[in-house]
Amino acid sequence: MDYAPILQRIAADIQPLIGKGRVADYIPELGKVRATRFGMALVTVTGETHTIGDADERFSIQSISKLFACTLAFQRLGEELWKRVGREPSGNAFNSLVQLEYEQGIPRNPFINAGALVVTDVLCRNLPGADTALVELLRRLSGNDTIAVDERVARSELEHAARNRAMAYFMKSFERLEVPVERIIDVYSRNCAIAMSCTDLARAALFLANGGVVPHSGERILAPSPTKRLSALMLTCGTYDAAGDFVYRVGLPAKSGVGGGIVAVMPGAWAVCVWSPGLDASGNSLVGVQALEWLTTLTGHSIF
Ligand code: DON
């Protein structure tokens, strides 16, 4: 399939929506990004790369880091991971605390903040180099050795982490966390503050479209069954309380972040990342969701 004209058409048709939505500013450093940015990169398992707009501009990956942190935890713990964190959509905002009390401090899934804090606890406990493990994984997956934490975003995030701290201490009160809360908050916040481009992120997610193997290096990240399972979790939980609407419109497993990025995976074929910082009410990129809806419509590719 010729993806280049499809990306061009999406970039043209999306113009009236550019700048709509609200740039996240609860982490002040994120609020400094211009709302009019738009980029998209699609990479195929056969080695093609197609990009449009600001596809090579770095942005804050934010909650997209949760997908790769979960990959590391799943590699280490396998099915044991699900004793610590659930696999159901939360139906609540990504930073909500309410369910935690009813459900004895066990978060619904690894892609909401509470779940990602548990995953970070697992990493801190089980990986000797937990501080740098995610950056190293992302460098290997994307083939880009320059990927790094944006220190200004990391600082900003740490200074405004009251809600995440509250969540972590609340889970600690149920004895659900093993390492000190401040260490978990530090590693979690730095992982969210990693900066990557659409091209980097599409490449990083490509192993999920390729049965768990990184196409460019041949490295196996996950066996086929865990790869399927992680993708299934993206489908049901990757876009928070909007996961139902997202799957209805787009039809692909995906993971979003409040930096405005969304990665999505077409099993057996390609991975895509779209970036535009204006968010909808659920914290997903407003333009990004529309662009992905058009991508699956125009290509005729989705998992359904
Ligand atoms: O912890 C936070 O709130 C942010 N670092 C990440 C949240 C996020 O990206 C949720 N995504 N839509």
TrEMBL record:
It comes from Labilithrix luteola. HAMAP family: Glutaminase. It catalyses: L-glutamine + H2O = L-glutamate + NH4(+). The gene is glsA. InterPro entries: Beta-lactam/transpept-like (IPR012338), Glutaminase (IPR015868). Gene3D superfamilies: DD-peptidase/beta-lactamase superfamily. Coiled coil: none annotated. This is Glutaminase. Its EC number is 3.5.1.2. Keywords: Acetylation, Hydrolase. Pfam families: Glutaminase.
